[in-house]
Amino acid sequence: MDVSALLTSAGINIALCVVLVSLYSILRKQPANYCVYFGRLLSDGRVKRHDPRWYERFAPSPSWLVKAWETTEDEMLAAAGLDAVVFIRMVICSIRIFSIVAVVCLAFVLPVNYYGQKMEHKEVHLESLGVFTIENLNPRSRWLWVHCLSLYIISSAACALLYFEYKNIAKKRLAHISGSASKPSHFTVLIRAIPQSPDQSYSETVSKYFTNYYAPSYVSHLMVYRDGFIHRLMNETERMCQAIKHISPDLSCNPSLKSCAICGPAATNSFQILSNETDSVKGLELGELTLTTTEEVRNSFHFDSLHFSAHLQERPVAFVFFKSRYDALVVSEVLQTPNPMLWVADLAPEPHDVHWRNLRIPYRQLWMRRIATLVGAIAFMFVFLFPVAFVQGLTQLPTLSRNFPFLKDLLNRRFMVQIITGYLPSVILVLFFYAVPPLMMYFSTLEGCVSRSLRKKSACLKILYFTIWNVFFVNILSGSVIRQFTVLNSVRDVPAQLAKLVPAQAGFFMTYCFTSGWAGLACEIMQPIGLIWNLIAKVIVKNKEESYETLRFPYHTEIPRLLLFGLLGFTNSVIAPLILPFLLIYFFFAYLIYKNQIINVYITKYESGGQYWPVFHNTTIFSLILSQIIALGFFGLKLSTVASGFTIPLILLTLLFSEYCRKRFAPIFQKYPAEILIAMDRADEMTGKMEEIHNNLKVAYSQIPTCSEESSKAGCTSPCSDQELPDSEELKPEKENLKADYIWEFQRSRSGLDLEVKSCPSASPTCYSPGFAEIYKRT
């Protein structure tokens, strides 16, 4: 690839970025798009809707850049949690590392590469990219010591910055643990693989076991039920509520179980609890919706009582609660029985983080699922070889034209060659990669992860391995096969072969940085999918509601992309340093874009507590060692024994540094320190908060919560706590109605006591109470 093709790709992507960013600065001012670009602020109720002046609404402005730049780390921590802060620290660490790398390599390595051979240079835009790489040096060149010294400076700076960042993030994680004093997960242990007993239920087995072995610390437990039918029933109720709400023209409050003061008297759009069957209205007309008889609607949801009771069976999974954090930590760390496949104990995830569907998977199936997903991911990697080979074929059109003569006519048009070889390959590869994240997330779900954050981290690792393998290794290997029709002969030849292949792919890596990096960030801030969906909802469906609460930050896609560009930067630093300015532009642009998205768009419902940082650290060390191995191979090709001899100790020192960090900091991200948990327990005992925490444990881990935080944002002006219903005993269904009776008994068994029944003014299915049985009965 020559410089002109590279400039063509850069020009197209720069123009695309300018257009998209300008459109964003205009569209974000339109009131109809607030739900797309200010979802988090709208959900928190911290943004005022106002219509700017007409000329301001259609004029691009950089005010959002200033706001993103001025946002402090403490503000991000309070708004989006520790994971968001850790991600921004990854970007900042990358900026610091590659600023040093760019200064060293552009000031010393690039001039040495360019003037490495005595030759007559052309104009810059007509030059081949090969003259900017280490390939332009002669064998046994005395200038190779510049590359070796630069490699030492890069490795030392990277390791120093990684150490201080790791130390800083570890302190933030410890502060995060000690600052979350009321988290119910610290007192809760998830027990799986509970043995089945013919004489007693799972709940009785759990109670007997922990009363026998952990009597001083055991508080209570909560069984996990096979609640698929309940969720389907709640979804049906949700759809009915939405239908009634949208049909009614003068709806002022979301449906609730009792009319509030704002909704008016009983003849309103809210649900009303009727005392018995004779009080039901036989001909209720609401807008265009007419319910002729309650019996007809009931028949539409008819089911067998035995079938329903089967859906309420207990699963061999339970949340077990303990008196202190330290007691829960001890139980989760020890082996409960001589059979490790029974009574498996782990610290429970946060209530909002629990992946309820995967809790019903038998524990003995998990290892088979992990093997199956691993085989599926590897198979998909091999399938993905075909599009990567096709992309490499486009970058090697001059080479392919010797074997396929019909391509020669296409090569006569210079601009078409620049488009096809410089811009099109990276675009095609990026489009193919859009299919990777959903599939890897599906594989992570099949593995049986019990928490959503763990599932996202698992998907992040799969996408990371997949991206590095296909974008880096497969690209350089397939390019080698197309050009020379050769493959690696032995493992000993790996450094030398990589040293030959990486400089040849430097042009493609630069164009990939333009397309996936620059243009990808512009698409991220533009939110095209959310914008199109909002347009369809407003114009075609005519839905006045704004579903902005569904967006979560895609750590599983953005972290692998960030680390891939870090890998490309390290491996090309002394080989082809021309890529470094483009990477620095990407990192600076990413810093502003991601901060803007975190503070305005994405909502944090669950987080991992900073556990993505070890992924960043380990991948950066891998990239650094890989760059040293490639440099070692190239020093061997150039017959520089001195440079090769100095590179080997550098690799060993980097490995020792990695092992030290693994021993010093990695355990903090894997386990909870007992010293901190005991101090938190003593502080809560002194302040008298322990009893309150114990009383809230069952409510927090209820499969069907009585009133969730999300439902409080759904849109009624009256709060949940202000709307009271009759006592639960008054809501007990009639004995002849088995359907309602099963639901009522299920909720009583889930709570373990008579709860005060309150309704929540939301159509969300997460709002559930014993009165739900009466809703089903009336409909």
Automatic annotation (TrEMBL):
Record's protein name: CSC1-like protein RXW8
What span is annotated as the signal peptide, if there is one? none
> Which stretches make up the CSC1/OSCA1-like cytosolic domain?
186-358
| CC terms in the record's Gene Ontology section | membrane
What compartments host this protein?
Membrane
Which PANTHER family does this UniProt record tie to the protein? CSC1-LIKE PROTEIN, PROBABLE MEMBRANE PROTEIN DUF221-RELATED
Keyword annotations for this protein, in alphabetical order, are: Calcium, Ion channel, Ion transport, Membrane, Transmembrane, Transmembrane helix, Transport
* Residues of the CSC1/OSCA1-like N-terminal transmembrane domain: 5-165
Q: Does the keyword Transport apply?
A: yes
Molecular function (GO) terms listed? calcium-activated cation channel activity
**Record's InterPro entries?**
Csc1-like, CSC1/OSCA1-like_7TM, CSC1/OSCA1-like_cyt, CSC1/OSCA1-like_N
Question: What kind of membrane protein is this, topologically?
Answer: Multi-pass membrane protein
- Specify the superkingdom: Eukaryota
Q: Where the protein is mainly located, per its record? A: membrane
For this chain, the family text in UniProt reads: Belongs to the CSC1 (TC 1.A.17) family.
**Record domain CSC1/OSCA1-like 7TM region: where:** 369-635
